């Protein structure tokens, strides 16, 4: 009835398009995708990764984002200076350093991750409840 997913383990999927932004790349502007985005470099701008069941943003260990992130699933092991809004899961791995607020449906935080901001569950909003 329930699937057990280990922390940091991706679910098996069929062919999925993936965008990789290399370690030496610097992107000045916004990124919008409906598939998987793997960030190894530096982005100055907002990132929107939503729209398909496979939509996921991975901010890897040497990556840096200066802007807000909106993603169905966000996996962070690098630096994010901005807010993270997710309709699904947010994972902060041990190398993560987030300076901003996080809204999420489910959350996982590995020992060593740093968050300078507030976390809030958006589950009540998703279920149609209000205060």
Can you count the beta strands?
18
Helix-and-strand structural type: mainly beta
Q: Approximately what portion of the residues adopt beta-strand conformation? A: 35-45%
Overall mean pLDDT stands at 88
The largest β sheet comes out as: 6 strands, parallel
Give the termini distance in whole angstroms: 31 Å
Reconstruct the topology from this structure.
Elements: E1 18-21, E2 26-28, E3 31-33, E4 36-39, E5 42-44, E6 47-49, E7 56-59, E8 64-66, E9 69-71, E10 74-76, E11 79-81, E12 84-86, E13 89-92, E14 97-99, E15 102-104, E16 106-109, E17 114-115, E18 119-121, H1 123-126
Parallel strand pairs: 1-4, 2-5, 3-6, 4-7, 5-8, 6-9, 7-10, 8-11, 9-12, 10-13, 11-14, 12-15, 13-16, 14-17, 15-18
Structure, explained:
It is built from 1 helix and 18 strands. It has a 6-stranded parallel beta sheet, with no helix packed on it. Strands 2-5-8-11-14-17 form a 6-stranded parallel beta sheet, with no helix packed on it. It has one helix at 123-126; strands spanning 18-21, 26-28, 31-33, 36-39, 42-44, 47-49, 56-59, 64-66, 69-71, 74-76, 79-81, 84-86, 89-92, 97-99, 102-104, 106-109, 114-115, 119-121. The mean pLDDT is 88. The protein has one domain (19-117). It is mainly β and 131 residues long.
Features:
about 45% strand; six-stranded parallel sheet; about 130 residues; mainly beta
Q: Can you summarize this structure?
A:
This protein is 3% helix and 44% strand.
